[in-house]
């Protein structure tokens, strides 16, 4: 059994260092860590080399200057030597039992892909709407699931995931470059694996913390993120080799209903709780995304737009 932990990074030297240090204390150590630097200037090399001397695990630095989140992940998969590829983002830090929990769940569930929980940590904030914003951040960036390991009926996102390369037939390249600037490259891959019959699992004890930066915690960014997540189901129907027009129409109908119902409920929900208001705002933005899914309306979060 061989394990590679893949850490793609883009201009987050402090976050990268925090993520790597969390890997050094794992109860089960990986065989390889691959850091993929997606910044054109290659600024993560110095951080990686400085920490490599203290690492109990081999760290391979890969520079992928072609901007894009899919490009970065594809470069990491190409450099990975392990049967199991485990992904940790550069804004995440892993608990000491994280990797062990993922591997145990994989064996217990006989799952080709395993996901773990993500707990968002919001930056400190004040103001009249801080409680709603913090509730929104927790809802948007956290990933919750069952309290015990179990098989999942639908996949989750790439951050904090394990893929068994022997048990799935990965496309070439694994991640579609169409999502380089928008994200959602993981949704495209996992939707394809799901159609091929891949078995997905949940590792309840494999928690990571996502450290949300202030620039990702403003209202404009939060709402655009929800909008982009909402676009995903509709776009996945359209982007198939044979577009699923019936599925697309259904998702657009669901989106229209979400937009109207939750949009009207957002203000009254504030009287109930910050959490209820955040849920309505999130569902409203996601409903708009399902309805307005076309490429020209896609928000750009990665790649050339930020290089």
Spans of 5+ residues with little confidence (pLDDT < 50)?
none
The ordered H/E elements are EHEHEHEEHEEHEEHEEHHH
Report mean pLDDT, rounded to a whole number.
94
**What is the beta-strand fraction?**
5-15%
Write the layout of secondary structure elements.
Layout: E1 3-9, H1 13-24, E2 32-37, H2 44-52, E3 59-63, H3 69-79, E4 84-87, E5 92-94, H4 98-109, E6 113-115, E7 118-121, H5 130-141, E8 150-152, E9 161-164, H6 185-195, E10 200-202, E11 208-211, H7 219-238, H8 245-270, H9 274-291
Parallel strand pairs: 1-2, 1-4, 2-3, 6-10, 7-11
Antiparallel strand pairs: 4-9, 5-11, 6-9, 8-10
Task: Describe this structure in a few short sentences.
By secondary structure, this protein is α/β, with parallel strands linked by helices. Helices cover 43% and strands 15% of the residues.
Describe, in plain words, how this protein is organized in 3D:
With 307 residues, the protein is α/β, with parallel strands linked by helices. Helix content is 43%, strand content 15%. The strands form two sheets. The chain has an eight-stranded mixed β-sheet, with helices on both faces. Strands 5-11-7 form a three-stranded mixed β-sheet. The longest helix has 26 residues, at 245-270. The mean pLDDT is 94.
Provide keyphrases for this structure.
single chain, alpha/beta, eight-stranded mixed β-sheet, three-stranded mixed β-sheet, 11 strands, globular
């Amino acid at each position: 059994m061989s394990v590679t932990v893949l850490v793609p990074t883009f201009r987050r030297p402090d976050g990268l260092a925090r993520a790597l240090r969390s890997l050094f204390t794992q109860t089960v150590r990986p065989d390889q860590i691959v850091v993929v630097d997606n910044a054109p200037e290659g600024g993560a090399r110095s951080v990686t080399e400085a920490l490599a001397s203290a690492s109990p695990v081999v760290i391979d630095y890969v520079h992928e200057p072609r901007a894009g989140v899919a490009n970065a992940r594809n470069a990491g998969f190409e450099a990975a030597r392990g049967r199991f590829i485990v992904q940790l983002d550069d804004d995440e830090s892993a608990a000491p039992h994280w990797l062990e929990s993922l591997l145990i769940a994989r064996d217990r569930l006989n799952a080709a892909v395993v996901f773990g929980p993500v707990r968002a940590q919001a930056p400190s904030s004040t103001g009249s709407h801080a409680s709603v914003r913090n509730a929104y951040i927790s809802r948007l960036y956290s990933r919750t699931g069952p309290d015990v390991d179990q098989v999942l009926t639908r996949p989750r996102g790439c951050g904090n995931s394990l893929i068994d390369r022997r048990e799935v037939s990965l496309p070439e390249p694994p991640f579609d470059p169409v999502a380089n600037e928008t994200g959602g490259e993981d949704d495209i891959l996992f939707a394809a694996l799901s159609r091929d019959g891949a078995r997905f699992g949940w590792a309840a004890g494999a928690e990571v913390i996502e450290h949300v930066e202030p620039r990702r915690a403003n209202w404009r960014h939060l709402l655009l993120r929800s909008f982009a997540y909402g676009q995903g189901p509709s776009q996945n129907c359209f982007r198939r080799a044979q577009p699923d027009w019936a599925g697309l129409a259904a998702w657009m109908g669901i989106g229209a209903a979400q937009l109207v119902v939750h949009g009207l409920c957002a203000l009254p929900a504030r009287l109930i709780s910050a959490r209820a208001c955040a849920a309505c705002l999130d569902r409203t933005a996601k409903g708009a995304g399902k309805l307005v899914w076309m490429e020209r309306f896609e928000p750009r979060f990665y790649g050339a737009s930020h290089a």
